[in-house]
């Protein structure tokens, strides 16, 4: 497992991050979740990403139990705040000072630690002044409850404004967590150049497009048992945009590319996102330990320019590149 700096900070994260969105406390039973975390540790993964909203706080608790007994200084634990949790009252969401300061304490309690390495704004809050949000994050950092601050799915303009305020308040905005894959490339034209300028690194989620880039879904084929496309708790909805025949046909066209490099399709997808040097880490999820073992083999893989060109050509008609999709998919108001 190789490690990279998180943006321009001194913090290093593993190229592959283990994340528990749609798995721990929801799709995967606790014993299996713990086994996946231990497989990640055995494979050299040191970075673990979660959020208070995942399974309405249960995912943080599962991760905390799975990491219990590990040397805390050898881990990078990331969590997030914004989406509704608990009884989902009017202040149980967003990036108000109240919600941030209360949420960090809840996350630390569930994770069984006195600090997280990166505390992330899960989305941009249109209902809270940015100055209030960034001041609250500054206070979290000064209290030692988080070492660094990051965001998720912010536009280039929002990153620039947040970065400037963070500097004024004496802390560093180090990361952005966007969706990014060979099929979803909307960050490349605006978010990535802005991030490179500001010293912000990407910790990308869904690098295998919710499983579509593994090639396990075929046009007209039966959906595999236990797959995300069958998950009625949220996975089926998230993957629906890619369950089109034109996409599934194109993905099958990547098999010869993967074969030429001795990679599985999932390894090829992960290696592809890691070729972008602004990407500090790619998040994987897993329902079985063997998935972790397979996916970590993407770390350290170098794809030559001609291979990247072949991938572009295969996916040319189905890859999404519109930079406006980041703002389009963002919440316009709090969800409660």
Automatic annotation (TrEMBL):
Transmembrane segments: none
Alphabetized UniProt keyword annotations: NADP, Oxidoreductase
Family to which this protein belongs: Belongs to the shaker potassium channel beta subunit family.
All residue ranges annotated as the NADP-dependent oxidoreductase domain in the record: 15-315
Organism whose genome encodes this protein: Kineococcus gynurae
InterPro entries referenced in this protein's UniProt entry, alphabetically: AKR, K_chnl_volt-dep_bsu_KCNAB-rel, NAD(P)_OxRdtase_dom_sf, NADP_OxRdtase_dom
Classification of source organism: Bacteria, Bacillati, Actinomycetota, Actinomycetes, Kineosporiales
The protein's name in its UniProt record: Aldo/keto reductase family protein
Family matches, as Pfam families: Aldo_ket_red
